[in-house]
Structures are given as structure tokens and as C-alpha cells.
Amino acid sequence: MTKLYRSPVQVELDARAEPRRFRWLGRWHRILKCALDEEGQHLWSKLRTPEPKRYRCETYQGLVCDLCFARESGTWVLERVWD
């Protein structure tokens, strides 16, 4: 089960240009694991807008979420949190 947020977040990247930590609701969350979500990428293929980069991340606190980078606007969004 998930909860949809679509909240703008501040993200710091690692040397591979992947999310290392993000700031949400005034708190920094360090990322333990992060992978590009290939499955979510194809959902945008029929739309005319550029595909956002979507990452499935797990934090050290156990939070599992999807972070998206909107290429058009250059902003990061916490799209959803998984239970």
C-alpha cells in the first residue's frame, strides 16, 4: 500500500548523480539503498512530456519511497511512500 504525496524535496546527490539524502518535512533522510525504477519509467513513454527520473529509495530509518527528478523544471519530488 502507498500514500501519494508529490511534495517538493531538497535532494543531495552522490558521486554517481543518484540521491544520497533528501529533506522532507524539515528533516534530512539518509538513503541506504536507491535504484532507478525502470518499471515506472515506461509508464511515461506514451506522454509527450519528458520522462522524470524515478528512484525507489530506502532510508536508514526504514522509509521506502519514490523520488522523482522532473527534468523540465529541474526539481525533485517525493512522489509516494510505501507501507
From TrEMBL:
Protein name: Uncharacterized protein
Domain of life: Bacteria
Species annotation: Pelotomaculum schinkii
